Amino acid sequence: MLNRLDEMLNFHTQALRVRDQRQQVLASNIANADTPHYKARDLDFKTALQGALQGTQTGGTALATTAPGHLAGKAGGSDAGLLYRTPAQGSVDGNTVDVDAERAAFAENAIQYEFNLTRLNQQIKGLLAAIQG
């Protein structure tokens, strides 16, 4: 029974995680709009979501252990799945951030995040209504 509930909620849960990751990348691009030689990055949402749903998405680079008692872990802040954005127009300082395009992508991603959150809430409310009768 719990497996079916988990499967039902899994899609929107994973979509929220990927949308959150993309929002952070877009915010980083906007924050570095004036940084010389900064290369704008983006996340291919479809590929990242498919990887998250299949459980093949890597959470980071494996950390090296130097002693037998060390725990294997994953490094945070991985660049796995991030792509470089193709600049629409070159700049003198080598920065590829187009602030207008980044803001538009940021706003669109925020709307999609809100949609996934609303759908997840609707599913949970439907479950509660079914349980309460």
TrEMBL record:
- Where does the signal sequence lie? none
| Keyword tRNA processing included in the entry's annotation | no
The yes or no answer to whether the keyword Protease is present is no
List keywords of the entry alphabetically. Bacterial flagellum, Cell projection, Cilium, Flagellum
The Flagellar basal body rod protein N-terminal domain sits at 9-39
| Subunit and partners | The basal body constitutes a major portion of the flagellar organelle and consists of a number of rings mounted on a central rod.
What is the protein name for this chain?
Answer: Flagellar basal body rod protein FlgB
From which source organism is this entry?
Thiobacillus denitrificans (strain ATCC 25259 / T1)
